[in-house]
Amino acid sequence: MPVSVTDPLGPAESQITFRQLADAMPQMVWSARPDGSHDYYNAQWYAFTGVPVGSTDGDGWNTMFHPDDQQRAWVRWQHSLETGEPYEIEYRLRHHSGTYRWTLGRALPVLSASDEIVRWVGTCTDIDDQKRIIERNEILSRELSHRIKNIFAVISGLISLSARRYPAMQEFAQKLQQRVAALGRAHDYVRPHSDESAPHHGPTTLKSMLKELLSPYPALDEGRLAILGDDHVIDDRGATPIGLVFHELATNASKYGSLCIPEGTVRLTSKIQSDVLLLRWEERGGPAVQCAPNVTGFGTRLIEMSVVNQLGGSITREWLPEGLAVQIEVPLSALSRT
Hints:
The protein is an alpha+beta fold. It is built from 9 helices and 13 strands.
């Protein structure tokens, strides 16, 4: 939101106070005239860049950016000057050591009483360490995913080799290989993704994604795992956390719940109410449930993170005698970018 003031410059005392406050801030602060000409930087700017005072006034600031970022930053700044929209961009800023560090640049317009832009006030925040951590985590995630996919490939190969020794088991081996391949596809849904690594670009639907995700489980083909209710468009923004939740629930049901015995069933029902999606997972016919577990496992915490932190929703669990029931509520807006 723009800041509205009566006198953007104020008396000399106000200017001195502003500079004292700006210099005391633990990040770079700058200001510019309505035409975008920079006329002030605080002490942190000069400490970070190491340039002489006043050398980046006017348009000189753009030379401080990495050459690959200069045009992009300039175009974004011109857009804000023309429209009055807040300025926000990530770019690499030259440090006094000579290296370039990733920085988050932001600015808001200062308005007069007649709603005219009289000044821009902005900040530069060093985010290089965070960017490096994200990059390292992405590399580790890809490496882990690559190793897991190799494991699926090895398992499939072992099944094929074993089946050659027992020709009568060929049909069973092929079906088993199909299940392993489906697990590999499910893994792509539930692992963390960047924009570049997401395997499911563009929108799909919730029910088609769930069917693909749960296809490795024989109970789906047998009709014991039913996916019912309303459908909705979903893309990688919602598919990964939703997929992770139900992959975890299906895995637990296969190990401890209703899917670990031939008679057990699961109903997964979706219902749209206004701008909220309700998802209910109900297990029946499995081992009797005595009470809620005393220990919260990693999978349970992962589900909480996916629903609450990533999707902005809520989750409740009922440990009923006939089986686990899970109710999830998420805003429809969290399922896709459209």
